[in-house]
Amino acid sequence: MKPVREKAIALLKQVIAVTPQNAKANSVLSTLYADIDQEKALAHARTALALEPKNSDVLADVAITYDAMGDRKRAIQYARQSLAHGDTLSDLQAQAGLQGVLADPGFRKSGK
Looking at the domain covering 3-108, what would its CATH class be? Predict the structure, then answer.
């Protein structure tokens, strides 16, 4: 694991220890775990979605998580939900982890 990622994970764990209802901290943590520990990534993604199922930022992070884990279909689903709950296409385009999702023909078929 890269030192920066390790530090970010440690800091987010501290945030969650103090404020376990922090959906954004959980969703960001899910993105960091996505390619190193899928079980932890899914646990944090599910927690974030349970806490704030209509938060567009959380939904975008979950899309990034699923795409990093190789589940493009679910990533597209959550990216679309992010748009439905307030994010714009420009918001999603600003996310480096969503470039593959946005370029996917399955996403473009949605008319977004």
Answer: mainly alpha
Average pLDDT for residues 71-75, to the nearest whole number?
A: 98
45, 48, 49, 55: CA torsion to nearest 10: -120
pTM of the model: 0.93
- Give the per-residue pLDDT at 2: 84
Torsion angle in degrees (nearest 10) through CA of 89, 95, 97, 103: 30
In the chain, the amino acid numbered 71 is D
| DSSP letter (8 states) at residue 54 | T
The set of long-range contacts for 18-25, using a CB threshold of 8 Å and a minimum separation of 24, is 21/51, 22/51, 23/47, 23/48, 23/49, 23/51, 23/52, 23/55, 23/58, 24/48, 24/52, 24/55, 24/57, 24/58, 24/61
